[in-house]
């Protein structure tokens, strides 16, 4: 992947609906070059898909936190699937080290947040947990 591919990917990450003409103008290349590069990036697996981000996806929840989970035995995949299906869960990460999973949670109230924590802690196979509220966030990429 060369510098033009990287610039094309950044442009698509900012606006996945940008037209080939808009991308060509932005990058200073021809539409054929953009189309060829995009086709190659898809074929090579660099671009795995396109998605839509809604207002709800970017609107911050009033209460946000990370819940670290210790899982008993081989139940990680089962618990990961159950936790990921909860509407308040923004992401579930597998990790190494002390914790097996890290769960990103977002709710509108502390009471709702507490209910999510309680539901996850009650799941068979969850042996321990630790939760940290997120107080502020600085974005790494604009």
Explain what this protein looks like in three dimensions.
This protein starts with a helix and ends in a 9-residue tail after the last strand. A 4-stranded antiparallel sheet has the order 2-3-1-4, covered by helices on one side. Strand 2 (89-94) and strand 3 (101-107) form a beta hairpin. The protein is an alpha+beta fold. Helices cover 41% and strands 21% of the residues. The protein is built from 6 helices and 4 strands; from the N terminus they run ααααβαββαβ. The chain folds into 2 domains: 3-43, Winged helix-like DNA-binding domain superfamily/Winged helix DNA-binding domain (Arc Repressor Mutant, subunit A, Orthogonal Bundle), CATH 1.10.10.10; 55-133, 2-Layer Sandwich (Alpha-Beta Plaits). The longest helix has 13 residues, at 31-43. Helix 2 (20-27) packs across helix 3 (31-43).
CATH topology of the largest domain: Alpha-Beta Plaits
Strand order of the largest sheet: 2-3-1-4
**Number of DSSP helical runs:** 6
**Domain count:** 2
What would you call the structural class? alpha+beta
> Would you report the number of β strands?
4
Helix content: 40-55%
Which CATH class of the largest domain is shown? Alpha Beta
Write the CATH architecture name of the largest domain. Answer: 2-Layer Sandwich
Inertia-based shape: elongated
- The CATH homologous superfamily of the largest domain is termed Lrp/AsnC effector binding domain/regulation of amino acid metabolism (RAM) domain
Mean pLDDT level: 91
N-to-C SSE series? HHHHEHEEHE
Largest sheet: 4 strands, antiparallel
Measured distance between first and last alpha carbons: 22 Å
Beta-strand content estimate: 15-25%
Low-confidence stretches: none
**Radius of gyration, rounded?**
20 Å
């Amino acid at each position: 992947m060369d510098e033009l591919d990287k610039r094309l990917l950044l442009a698509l990450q900012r606006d996945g609906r940008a037209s080939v003409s808009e991308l060509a103008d932005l990058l200073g290349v021809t539409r054929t070059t953009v189309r060829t590069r995009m086709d190659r990036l898809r074929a090579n697996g660099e671009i795995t898909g396109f998605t839509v981000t809604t207002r709800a996806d970017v609107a911050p929840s009033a209460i946000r936190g990370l819940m670290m989970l210790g899982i008993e035995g081989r139940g990680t995949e089962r618990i990961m699937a159950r936790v990921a299906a909860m509407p308040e869960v923004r992401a579930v990460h597998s990790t190494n080290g002390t914790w097996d999973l890290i769960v990103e949670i977002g709710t509108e109230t502390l009471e709702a947040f507490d209910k999510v924590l309680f539901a996850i802690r009650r799941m068979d196979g969850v042996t321990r947990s630790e939760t940290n509220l997120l107080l502020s966030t600085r974005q790494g990429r604009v």
